[in-house]
Design brief:
six-stranded mixed β-sheet; alpha+beta; single chain
């Protein structure tokens, strides 16, 4: 074997090893990209859960600080100028919302205003959000989330606060527009479209 043949053989071996290393790393790189993507989606889904937790907090029985606690949670999820848009049952979901409110503070006042209360101003209503069928789309530092809503609200006696007076169940879906900031992802726009509301008197 000549020196030329030996050099050519070594070059072939080096190329083969290089290609093997590249192809061996490809699955790892692909998995890393997927892991980062799933982590981002999880953070965006957490924003939807954050909103639901805050909204349910407004109606906590016996909690005299419920409003301030709920608002504090909202401010962890939303940008300062976030918009909130609401379409009730029977609305044209492609048309303008019946309620369009800007800032978490203003939305908190709207949510709190519909909570039934007793003469002392305490909530006699407990709400429970159930969310499902999350769908997340990402486009750089912006994204969109869609989720189904199944909510239950239970009203209690004005006097004792123990006996149930009626139960209301709502179905609908949320759409969130989100944006990545230097610190975290935040919601810039929330849309709620209610498909049905049913009441079961007790």
């Amino acid at each position: 074997m000549t020196n030329c043949d030996l050099k050519a053989g070594l070059k072939t071996v080096k190329k083969s090893l290089a290609l093997t290393c590249v192809f061996a790393l490809l699955p790892l790189t692909s998995n890393m990209v997927k892991a980062v993507d799933l982590e981002t989606k999880s953070k965006i889904i957490d924003l939807m859960v954050c909103y639901a937790r805050a909204t349910d907090t407004f109606g906590e029985l016996g909690n005299t600080n419920a409003y301030h606690e709920a608002l504090a949670i909202y401010k962890k999820c939303f940008s300062e100028e976030a918009s909130f848009n609401f379409w009730p049952v029977g609305s044209d979901f492609d048309g303008p919302p019946s309620q369009s409110i800007v800032t978490p503070d203003a939305w908190a006042k709207f949510v709190d205003s519909v909570i039934p209360r007793n003469e002392e101003g305490q909530s006699i209503s407990r709400g429970h959000h159930m969310l499902s069928n999350y769908f997340v789309e990402l486009d750089g530092d912006e994204g969109k989330l869609e989720a189904y809503l199944s909510a239950t609200r239970v009203n209690y006696s004005y006097t004792t606060g123990s006996s149930v007076t009626d139960v209301t169940e709502s179905k609908g879906f949320y759409t969130l527009s989100v944006k990545k900031t230097e610190e975290s992802w935040l919601v810039t726009r929330l849309e709620l479209r209610v498909i049905s509301v049913s009441s079961l008197a007790r």
